[in-house]
Amino acid sequence: MHISRVDLNLLVVFDAIYTQSGVTKAAETLNLTQPTISHALARLRDHVGDPLFVRQGQKLVPTPAAHKMISPVRRALQTIETTLADLEGFEPATARMTFKLGIHPLTENLLFSPLAERLQQTAPGIGLSSVLLDRRNIEADLAAGIFNVAVDIFLPLPETIMRRRMSGGRSVVVVRQDHPLAHRGMTLDDYLAQRHIIVSTRRQGLGPEDIALSRLGKSRTIALRCQQLGTAMDVVSRSDLVLTMSETFARRSNRLHGNSFLPLPFDVQEIEFYLYWHRNSDSDQANRWLRDQLVSAITEVPEG
Q1: Which parts of the chain span the membrane according to its record (predicted)?
Q2: How far apart are CA 175 and CA 254, in angstroms?
């Protein structure tokens, strides 16, 4: 089959169906109708001589042929998109595109508010799409264009993946506004006497504060483990439970809660995040601009 017989838009549809596991969500992603997506899939099936997707319950599941196709197809589409963008030049004020960020829910809370505010003012035609980050596949996902950049802690990755350090800031103790310790400060003994909250998407495990305490021969009482920072901040505002968190994270999530912040009464390693992108995107103007915006957003500490 010669490439001249294939409409490249069919490959865009193929990528969307593979990502969304269905025609309906693929149509929403591409802003097309379901019949248009179904017709495109039928044409591509004729071209390759394979069904590509089979229905299992509510989802379309890729066939072995689709699994084999997806990585080279995504690389090709990304190359075409990057080439055209470079030829046109990148002007944030007039660009119309959507950046996909591989990110965890906790980091999304930190970055999206200031980033969306910046885009509204300087790049109103640019959108953001959050993609749940899977550390096991970060190299392949960046190479395939599943997301343009990723944000996570330090990860040992191959040379094809580039990184840039992003500081998450010092840690503070978050307490409700009228907590008994809110206005007199907190000693180490005070800290150990409290009941604590941990925010993590992991099923189990300790926080960096626990590691620091263990070096002092101390431990704290974990009363609540939750996945969302907003939930933790709300619980703090309604109870005597306390939360140890990056000051930047905490202040970003505190606007609706009015909690107070106390210095952490012992030393703990500063939280560090890293921005990751594929080497193929290193010189891409749009990707470089996005990276600069993300670094600026994470270092911006709101008041309150």
Answers
A1: none
A2: 11
144, part of any domain: yes
The answer to whether 179 and 260 have CB atoms below 8 angstroms apart is yes
Any domain includes 224:
yes
Distance between CA 107 and CA 112 in Å, rounded? 8
Q: Average pLDDT for residues 151-175, to the nearest whole number?
A: 89
Give CA–CA dist 60/73, Å, rounded: 18
Q: Structurally, how many domains does the chain consist of?
A: 3
Q: How many CB atoms lie within 10 A of CB 230?
A: 15
Q: What are 53's strand-pairing partners? A: 62
Is pLDDT at 2 greater than 80 in this prediction? no
Is the pLDDT reported for residue 9 higher than 80?
yes
In this predicted structure, what is the pLDDT of residue 88?
Answer: 66
pLDDT of 290 reads: 94
Q: Which domain holds residue 34?
A: 3-80
CB burial readout 186-218, b (16+ within 10 A) else e: beeebbbebebbbbeeeeeeebebbebbeeeee
Residues 154 and 281 grouped into a single domain: yes
Q: Which two tokens stand for residue 18?
A: 């593979």
Q: What is the pTM of this model?
A: 0.64
